[in-house]
């Protein structure tokens, strides 16, 4: 017998089943490994879906809360606008009926009173 052929035969028996960088496993064992990997991947995806669902629910609650807050702010602004327009109408009436000198005195006294209160609150 040829010794070279025996080495080659032993080598092929030793490395039988290796194909291009991987070991060729029995089909049933390979199927079990793939099933196990698929189940792990599926569990990971389920966890991610649950997390995303919870996160989207939290975002929805936050958006609803902000919408309610903005609605209240809008209503408050409308009521403030009505109050200020009534006040401005009263000022117009006062300015039209009173003399300009008397009105100037009234406005100056309000500004002076405001400045005094401002400085007193700053000192305290």
Automatic annotation (TrEMBL):
Membrane topology label: Single-pass type IV membrane protein
Record domain T-SNARE coiled-coil homology: where: 32-94
SMART domains: t_SNARE (SM00397)
Keywords: Coiled coil, Endoplasmic reticulum, ER-Golgi transport, Golgi apparatus, Membrane, Protein transport, Transmembrane, Transmembrane helix, Transport
Membrane-traversing stretches: 103-121
Any GO CC annotation of this UniProt entry: Golgi membrane
InterPro entries on file: BET1_SNARE, T_SNARE_dom
Protein localization: Endoplasmic reticulum membrane; Golgi apparatus membrane
Broad class of where this protein is predominantly found: endoplasmic reticulum
One Gene Ontology biological process: protein transport
Role description: Required for vesicular transport from the ER to the Golgi complex. Functions as a SNARE associated with ER-derived vesicles.
Family per record: Belongs to the BET1 family.
Full protein name: t-SNARE coiled-coil homology domain-containing protein
Annotated source species: Microthlaspi erraticum
């Amino acid at each position: 017998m040829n010794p070279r052929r025996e080495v080659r035969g032993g080598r092929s028996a030793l490395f039988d089943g290796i194909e291009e960088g991987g070991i060729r496993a029995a089909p049933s064992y390979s199927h079990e490994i793939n099933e196990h990997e698929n189940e792990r991947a599926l569990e990971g995806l389920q966890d991610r879906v649950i997390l995303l669902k919870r996160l989207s629910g939290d975002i929805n609650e936050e958006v609803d809360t902000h919408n309610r807050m903005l609605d209240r702010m809008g209503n408050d602004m409308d009521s403030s606008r009505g109050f200020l327009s009534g006040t401005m109408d009263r000022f117009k009436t006062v300015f039209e009926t009173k003399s300009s000198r008397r009105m100037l005195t009234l406005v100056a006294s309000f500004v002076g009173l405001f400045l005094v209160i401002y400085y007193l609150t700053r000192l305290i």
